[in-house]
Amino acid sequence: MTRVRAAQLPDRTVEVLYDLAGAYEEGATVTVAVSSDGGDAWDVHPDASTLSGHVGEGVANGTDRRFVWNAPASLPAETFRPDFKVAVTATNNSIAGRQLTVTLPGGVPLVMVGVSAGTFGMGSPAAERSRSPEETRHTVTLTREYWVGRTEVTQAQWQAVMGTSPSFFSSCGGSCPVEQVSWDDIRGADGFLAKLNQLLGTTRFRLPTEAEWERAARGGTETRFSFGDALEGEDGCGANAAALPYVWWCGDSEGSTRPAGTKGASPYGLYDLHGNVSEWVEDRHADYSSEPQTDPAGSSSGLRRVLRGGSFNYDLRTTRSAYRFGSLPHGRYPFVGFRLARTR
C-alpha cells in the first residue's frame, strides 16, 4: 500500500485515498487507524459503520482507492486537525480451511479447500511400522498457501473438461474418481490442465507438488495416517477397524473404485487421500534429501513421476501419508488418478 493521503471535506467527513497492490484475487482486508497527535499514538479506531468505500473486506488492487470516514460520528467535539494522521493497512486473509467452488461445463462443481503455508515433517520416522527406506524424514517449509481438491478428480469432472471418460470402472458413474489417466494426459499440451485453465481463463490450476500433497494429506498430524496410527489391525488386505471409516483399500473395496468423498474427511476437510486411487503429483521420483527444504519441487532429472496415497486394490500400508512410489508418465492404470491443486 502506497500514497496514503487524507483530507477533510466541507461536511467535516474525511476522504482517504491510497494505492493498493499485492492483494489476492479475493481482495484484501483494509483497515484504518487514526492518530490525533501526529503519529505518537494511534488511538482512534473508526467504527465500520462510519466508513464507506474501499475499506473492509474484498478490496481489489488499484490506484486512488477511496473511502470516506464520517469523522463527526467518531469525534463529535473535534475537527480533523492538521496534526491528525491516518494509517491504512491492507491484509490478505488466510484461505486455510475455506472452500472454493468452480463450476465446470455442464454445471459440474469442482470444490477446492485452502491449505495454509507452514513447516511440517515430511516422510516417516525410522520406527514407523511398514515404512519404506525411501521415506527419509526431513523438514519442509511451504511459504505459500494453496488450494487443493476436496476429492480426487471425478469421472464427471474429467468428462466436463475433456468430453470423454477414459475410466475402466463405471459402476458409480461420474461420482467415482477418474482413472486410467497418465501424467502426460493430465500435464500435456492438450491435456486436462491445459484445457481446464483455458476454459476458466487462468493458469493457476496444476498438479500439487509432492510436498504440497503430503502436507494436505497429513492435515497437521504426524501419525501414519491422518486419522491415527491404526496399529491394532493388519497392514495388508486384512481387517483394520481404525482404517475402515477412512480408507478404500483391498480390505474393504471389493475390487473397484468407490464414489469420491464417501469415507471420512481428513483434519483439513479432504477426502480419499488414503486409498481409492493413487494420485499423480508434479515431482519426478527420486530419493529425498535429509536436509531441510523450502518449497521443494523435486528432482530436475529422472524418468518416473511420483504417485501418492495408495489405492483400492493395494495393501493398507501403501495408503500411509508418507508412502510414495514412481511410474513412467505415459502409464495408464485403473487404480491411478489425480487431485488438483491451484495457486492462490
Topology:
Blueprint: E1 2-8, E2 14-20, E3 28-35, E4 51-53, E5 56-59, E6 62-69, H1 71-74, E7 85-91, E8 99-104, E9 108-115, E10 118-122, E11 138-142, E12 146-149, H2 155-162, H3 183-187, H4 192-200, E13 205-206, H5 210-218, E14 278-284, E15 293-294, E16 305-308, E17 324-327, E18 336-338, E19 341-343
Parallel strand pairs: 11-15, 14-18
Antiparallel strand pairs: 1-2, 2-6, 3-5, 3-7, 4-6, 8-9, 9-12, 10-11, 12-19, 13-19, 14-16, 16-17
Question: Would you give an account of this structure?
Answer:
Helices cover 10% and strands 28% of the residues. The protein is mostly beta strands. It has two domains: 90 residues; 245 residues, paralog of FGE (formylglycine-generating enzyme) (Alpha-Beta Complex), CATH 3.90.1580.10. It has a five-stranded antiparallel sheet with strand order 8-9-12-19-13. Strands 1-2-6-4 form a four-stranded antiparallel sheet, with no helix packed on it. It has a four-stranded mixed sheet with strand order 17-16-14-18, with helices on one face. The chain is elongated, with a radius of gyration of 25 Å. It starts with a strand and ends with a strand. The relative contact order is 0.15. The model has no long low-confidence stretch (mean pLDDT 96).
